[in-house]
Design goal:
Layout lengths: L16 H12 L36 H6 L12 H5 L9 E6 L5 E4 H5 L5 E8 L4 E11 H8 L7 E6 L7 H4 L10 E5 H5 L4 E6 L2 E2 L9 E3 L12 E7 L6 H5 L23 E4 L9 E2 L7 H4 L13
Parallel strand pairs: 1-10, 4-11
Antiparallel strand pairs: 1-2, 3-4, 4-7, 5-6, 5-10, 7-8, 7-9, 11-12
Bound molecules: ligand MTE.
Ligand MTE binds next to loops.
Amino acid sequence: MLIRHAPDLTEAHVTPREAYLDRRSFLLGSAGGAITVGLGGAVANAAPLSGAKSQYSTTDKPTNLEDITGYNNFYEFGTDKGDPAAYAGKLTTSPWSIKIDGLVSKPATYALEDFVKPHGLEERIYRHRCVEAWSMVIPWLGFQLSDALKRAEPLSGAKYVAFETLVRPSEMPGQAAYFPALEWPYVEGLRLDEAMNPLTILAVGLYGETLPNQNGAPIRLVVPWKYGFKGIKSIVRISLVDKQPPTSWNKENANEYGFYSNVNPEVDHPRWSQASERRIGAGLLAGRQPTLMFNGYAEQVASMYTGMDLKANF
Ligand code: MTE
């Protein structure tokens, strides 16, 4: 199912962050929350959202909203690319809470609004590279994960950050399946320095609106130099830990999916060469384009891996 984007949504229609937060609080108090708000929102429940421009944005042309919201991986809703758009609309994302715990001085459970409120939002237009060898360019709206982590005050023993997605089989048909595609909850992890890198963000929106459910509403991780599966969706828990945490695809098949999963054209996946990629929406004539080391973000991230064998640590 494709979702139509209102052609007339312009910057002028985008309301400031405070108004968005008020709107969410308003929705919280309303029956069911199943309300389509705003000025020709692209997706049911979407609210307009805006963010400051960022030095980290690419000048690559953003992929169409229809492709970004119609061609997804979100196995909690099924394994076909169209399943998230077809089934994620039922997910209740308000109210939503996030727990931050583990090796921090200030563990807490926040209502989403309170978790987001202290942070100024930025628009980050990032390349998004899936291990299946396709790519997109997505104008995310979010804030740096580092800022949220600093607020919790990590203790000196914290070496990694672990993330967890919601478990709610009543609204996530893939979790209710007799033969589930993955073990739930979906879990992911980063080394602490990767989590603190300025490129790593928590996204709460894209294309000037709150995040569509199929893209991981209400809050998901975006790590643009890693394969897309590191970008865990619909996060309910962030834990600071001292050991490398388990990750969903590594648990599923450790030979195919490593912990690091940095985009690397020289390290092939057993089923997909990673040397090149298909840019979704570029048209049949566009052909494939070469994949860049660290997805083109080497300048910002390569130094974190100095001296590491990136073939062994794939
Ligand atoms: N997060 C959860 N909870 N469940 C998933 O199945 N799929 C991952 C990642 N995050 C996934 C997830 C994969 S394989 C990719 S490529 C990206 O989400 C896709 O993000 P997109 O649908 O916004 O493009």
